[in-house]
Write a structure and sequence with these properties.
The protein is mainly beta. The protein is built from three helices and twelve strands. β10 and β11 form a beta hairpin.
């Protein structure tokens, strides 16, 4: 399994030795810590849970502190230590090799190599309530024949005779963006282990500072 949680820094461009420019997205990925290992016997499936993002333990609930094993102690004064620091974000990665990981293990960008394909998961930018032209790419109506004010209008949304209703799934105005999206088969261009940075070719979903997940390419 190859997977990390990170934060989108922004976009830039890199030049190779022949001067060819490549647009890349910089992601600050990891270090991530293994907070839980799930197996078929106890949980019904095999997965590894990773934690990312330093946070003060005071900002975590007692349940979160207990899950991470950073409680000062229970009623009997026993300390529940797992070797996991206080982290803000938890995400799960399905893998058949969950037994190879241990709670408290640290994962970095070193597991990725230049040239391999990855999938990046994130939430797209929220656009609020948008019309048909912006949300679905409608061309809009004509500006001639006395209807210059109907350019961005949706037009007819259903038949008045045979159907007499609006069909299910009709593309109309509504909330746009702020949805989980996976950009597939993106190429790793550079890996900076000292600063926990990874450069991925092309654009990835989300705004600057948004949380993203980097994992093996499912179709690579």
């Amino acid at each position: 399994m190859k997977g990390l949680i990170g934060k989108k820094v922004g976009m830039t461009q890199v030049f190779d030795e022949s001067g060819v420019v490549t647009p890349v997205t910089i992601i600050q990925a990891g270090p991530c810590f293994v907070t839980q290992v799930k197996d078929e016997a106890n949980d019904g499936y095999s997965a590894v849970q990773l934690g990312y993002g330093d946070v003060s333990s005071k900002r975590l609930t007692k349940g979160q502190q207990g899950h991470l094993g950073i409680l000062k102690g229970d009623k009997k004064g026993r300390r529940k230590a797992k070797g996991v620091p206080a982290v803000r974000h938890l995400r799960e990665f399905r893998t058949s090799s969950a037994g190879d990981y241990k709670v408290g293990q640290e994962l970095t960008v070193m597991q990725f190599v230049i040239g391999e394909k990855v999938d990046v998961v994130g939430k797209t930018k929220g656009r609020g309530f948008s019309g048909n032209v912006k949300r679905h790419g409608y061309a809009g109506g004509v500006k001639t024949h006395g209807q210059s004010d109907r350019w961005r209008a949706p037009g007819s949304i259903g038949s008045a005779t045979e159907m007499s209703r609006v069909p299910k799934g009709k593309t109309m105005a509504g909330r746009m963006g702020n949805e989980r999206y996976t950009a597939q088969n993106l190429e790793v261009v550079k890996v900076d282990a000292e600063r926990n940075l990874i450069a991925i070719k092309g654009a990835v979903p989300g705004a600057k500072g948004g949380l993203v997940i980097i994992r093996d390419a499912a179709k690579g």
